[in-house]
Amino acid sequence: MTNRDEPSTADEDRPNVWEFRLRRALDRQFVVVVVALLVTAALGGYLAYEPHVEPGVEIEEETVTDWSERTAFGHSATVQEDNPVFPVGADLTDRSLYYTNLAPELDGVYEYRYSSSGGEGEVDVEMDIQLRYQSVAGDDDGVFWERTEPLTTVEHEAVNPGESVTAEFQVNVPETEARIEDIQEQLGTTIGTAEVDVVVQTRVQGTVDGDEVSTIHRQQLQISPDGATYEVENPGAETEAHQSTITDEVPVEYGPLRSYGSLGLIAASLLGLVGLGVARRNGAIAPTEREIAAAEWARTRSEFEEWISRGHVPDGSLETPRIELESLDDLVDVAIDSNNRVIEDAARECFYVVGSDVHYVFVPAQFGNGEPLPPNEPTTTPNPRSIVEDITDDGIFSAAGSADADDSDESTTETADGDAPITETADGDAPITETADGDAPITETADGGEPPAESSDSERAENE
Predict the structure, then answer these.
(1) Torsional class of 26: left (φ above 0), alpha (ψ -120 to 50), beta (otherwise)
(2) What is the pLDDT of residues 120-161, one digit of tens each?
(3) For 430-442, b where at least 16 C-beta lie within 10 A, e where not — what string?
(4) What average pLDDT does the structure give for the chain?
(5) Overall number of domains in the chain
(6) Going by fewer Cβ within 10 Å, which terminus of the chain is more open, N or C?
(7) What keywords is this UniProt entry annotated with (predicted)?
(8) Among the listed ranges 18-27, 150-159, 281-290, 424-433, which one has the minimum average pLDDT value?
(9) CA distance linking residue 283 with residue 354, whole number of Å
């Protein structure tokens, strides 16, 4: 015979507590979840529109050099006097200092050239070279006096890109010193620092790569006479680039997160909506009444855990008058008021508070089909204790309910030691029949009356 505490096979399919909570939350917040999925799908569509439907364009700017100009000074001096260092006629080139007695004349050259990105162009170049005398204050604080004299003017026509044009000039340094002294003598002062500059102004006009161009350049080569020597300060080659900005429209490129992540949002949202719709239609979301009842019972059972002890109530303790209560809360209140414990009898699937002259009982509501157990048949549904343990300890809900008897006069059959049947009634009126050691039945009445006399063997034979 199967033990009535043994769980049914339905326990193997009991849902997980987290699954129950998720389903209950989805059922309660179904509209909110659907709206959230719709918003997510709309967001995914918005993010996917530009990368896949209308990517748009962005403006890229690039600075390019259309054409450039280059100017440079060159200078040298020829040795004219005998000396122990330099031979007569030797050219001293691009030195920062020259000897006035040995090489009094400074020969200079000014060079101009240009280049174009397209390799086409034709320009006219005019070079105007002047010699400027001036007296300047220290630290570039100003010019006290200035005088210019023309040296030469050179013109070049139809100059092509890459072609070099030059203008040559010559400065007699001792004569410049004499000219400065003459000016100072006429001014009556030697204030400031005397300088001599070769100033070149270049005008360029023409076409480069089909575009009209016109530029003016001004550069100077500084000469500083100092009696026996003179210094030359060359500014070096100067380059001026003529640039333009090119704008171009190119398609906007999006990264993989924007391109494919947006599609993933749409797909996930739509799949979620379809899945929720199918699950709700099939009734797979809302918890069943049995699961909800089991959850409520687990909560109640756990709330009064400290007042409940598990054990077995002897039959003799139940011979006192029986009072059935409608809830475990009421039974716990009785236990507190009477200073007793609540006994959870797993065999009977009931909760008891046993007093000296009365006992109280609470029978949990059935989670099964609610039908009473057939006589002499063991139950295969879990008792309340197993349900509570399943929920609180294992985190799972029982799919089957309790098989407790109704509060009616229907009888419950148990076996003592697996042999003799014991029949009891709930209202105390129906007879209680027991057998001792499986032999002759002992019949009693609950109201204390005399039991009916047994018939003898002869009387039974006559009756047969």
Answers:
(1) alpha
(2) 899 999 999 999 998 888 766 688 899 999 999 999 999 999
(3) eebbebeeeeeee
(4) 77
(5) 3
(6) C
(7) Membrane, Transmembrane, Transmembrane helix
(8) 424-433
(9) 44
Same structural domain, 99 and 202: yes
Residue 172 shares a structural domain with residue 261: no
DSSP label at residue 326: S
Domain boundary among 227, 249, 271: 249
Q: Provide CB contacts within 8 A for 230, sequence distance 6+.
A: 97, 98, 100, 106, 173, 223, 224
Distance, in Å, from the CA atom of 382 to the CA atom of 372, rounded to the nearest integer, reads: 14
Domain containing residue 156: CATH number: 2.60.40
Residue 110 has pLDDT above 90, yes or no: yes
**Claim to verify: residue 165 and residue 300 sit in the same structural domain:** no
Q: How far apart are CA 241 and CA 222, in angstroms?
A: 25
The region, left, alpha or beta by phi > 0 then psi within -120 to 50, assigned to residue 45 is: alpha
CA distances from 285 to 13, 73, 296, 449 (A): 16, 92, 18, 58
| The last residue of a domain, from among 281, 296, 325 | 281
Residue 173 has pLDDT above 90, yes or no: yes
pLDDT in tens, 221-231: 999 888 899 99
Q: Is residue 1 part of a domain?
A: no
**Cα–Cα distance between 167 and 20 in angstroms, integer?**
99
Reference 285, options 6, 27, 93; nearest CA is 27
Q: How far is CA 357 from CA 323, 332, 342, in A?
A: 11, 18, 16
- Is the same domain home to 101 and 45? no
**Does a structural domain hold residue 365?**
yes
| Same domain assignment for residues 308 and 355 | yes
Amino acid found at 69: E
State CA 103 to chain mean position distance.
78
Domain identity same for 70 and 33: no
pLDDT in tens, 390-447: 443 433 333 333 333 333 333 333 333 333 333 333 343 433 333 334 343 333 333 3
Same domain, 340 and 216: no
Any domain includes 259: yes
Judge contact between 362 and 328, C-beta under 8 A. yes
Side-chain-side CA neighbours of 405 within 13 Å: the count stands at 20
Q: How far apart are CA 168 and CA 73, in angstroms?
A: 10
Q: Is residue 380 part of a domain?
A: yes
**pLDDT for res 163:** 92
Q: Which residues are bridge partners to 172 per DSSP?
A: 105
- Which structural domain range is residue 304 located in? 9-17+287-463
Q: Which residues pair with 400 in a beta bridge?
A: none
> 52 with 109, same domain?
no
User: In degrees rounded to 5, what are phi and psi of residue 11?
Assistant: -60, -25
What is the Cα–Cα distance from 329 to 325, expressed in whole angstroms? 9
